[in-house]
Design goal:
The structure is a single chain. By secondary structure, the chain is α/β, with parallel strands linked by helices. The chain has a single domain (3-252), classed as P-loop containing nucleotide triphosphate hydrolases (Rossmann fold). The chain has helices at residues 16-29, 44-49, 60-65, 72-75, 92-99, 108-114, 133-141, 160-173, 193-204, 219-227, 231-234, 239-252, and strands spanning 3-7, 34-38, 76-78, 84-86, 122-126, 144-150, 179-188, 210-216. An 8-stranded mixed β-sheet has the order 3-4-2-5-1-6-7-8, with helices on both faces. A hairpin with a 5-residue loop joins strand 3 (76-78) and strand 4 (84-86). Helix 6 packs parallel to helix 7. The model has no long low-confidence stretch (mean pLDDT 94).
Length: 253
């Protein structure tokens, strides 16, 4: 069965987009058919995945707002590595406002995805760093959630309990099958005290799984937005690339 995974955290800068894009790339490297949906108005995932010779004509905003006229096929593009994706733009902020007036607005994305979901092994949704209506749509459409937590920033833990409450409400009212696949530690540096403290606090959390794989701190990951490439395209032998490859295998297991 296809699996839809939302990569979600209310806090920005935790490696959410890097995880969504590089996990997708890692899964494709393991011969899986993958679609990334960029639901962040900052559209960083779109920048990383868009080939240099392609211009994005239709985005997720067009797909949501003009579903009667613009089919999913028109919105799906393919990266140089073979990752299919539906791009985003800053128009998504206005789309969220328009969604507020729609009937069954929390499940619009789920209904759109259901049309082509069976064509993929994995659909990965890059959520915005907020808990607005767009994020609700992502959680309503998802089977699982990956929560990236930045190991070198203790404040990343502050909103975790609130996020879990939000997830539980979504599960009870909209999507009863929603599960947390796990917390993913990013920017991991085992020699620093802050990393040890964050990892300790994460391990103490009850009823929240934690991925065995940790994404090590790497300047290469920070460089990928500048070159507009995934870490596998940019430096496939980097330590973080090795970690994302292992994450893909852990997700498949």
């Amino acid at each position: 069965m296809p699996r839809t995974i939302a990569v979600c955290n209310k806090k920005g800068g935790v490696g959410k987009t890097a995880t969504a894009v590089n996990l997708a790339s890692g899964l494709v490297r393991n011969n899986k058919k993958v679609l990334v949906i960029d639901l962040d108005p900052q559209h960083d995932a779109t920048r990383l995945l868009t080939p240099s010779n392609i211009s994005i004509t239709y985005t997720i905003s067009d797909m949501i707002e003009q579903s009667d006229n613009i089919t999913a096929e028109k919105c799906i593009y393919t990266s140089d590595e073979g990752v299919d994706f539906i791009g985003s733009s800053n128009k998504l902020t206005n789309t969220e406002i328009r969604l507020a007036g729609e009937m069954y607005r929390e499940t619009i994305l789920r209904r759109l995805i259901d049309v082509f979901k069976s064509s993929y092994d994995y659909i990965i949704i890059d959520c915005p760093p907020s808990t607005g209506l767009v994020t609700i749509n992502a959680l309503a459409a998802a089977d699982e959630i990956i929560i990236p937590v930045q190991a070198n920033d203790f404040s990343c833990l502050d909103g975790l309990n609130e996020l879990m409450k939000y997830i539980n409400i979504t599960r009870s009212q909209i999507n009863p099958g929603l599960t947390v696949a796990g917390i993913l530690i990013t920017k991991y540096s085992p020699v620093t005290n802050i990393t040890k403290l964050v990892c300790q606090k994460v391990d103490e959390l009850k009823n929240i799984p934690v991925f065995k794989t940790k994404i090590r701190l790497s300047t290469t990951v920070a460089e990928t937005p500048a070159v507009r490439k995934t870490i596998f395209e940019y430096k496939a032998n980097d330590k973080a690339a090795v970690d994302y490859e292992e994450l893909a295998k852990e997700v498949m297991r």
